[in-house]
User: Fold this.
Amino acid sequence: MHIRHEATETGGRFLVSDVPGAELIYLHPRPRTIVIDHTFVPETRRGEGTGETLVAAAVDYARRMGLQVDPRCPFAQRKFARHADWQSLLAK
Assistant:
């Protein structure tokens, strides 16, 4: 899957080029923290790992940028709960 990242001063999103409509939206409400606000995958493409790929892209971005992550999206919360190696990134 090819992931594209679009950033703004207040947040951004990750998109999957070959899955139209699939996206993860994040906010950047305070320094050093991103909030995963919403993850969406079209119903016809669910169960293929697209959502997890989007969350993993946000995690990789946070690691590279030295950011903490606040996963408010229920899907992202479930993925964080299953990945022990992501726990250190959770915003306090």
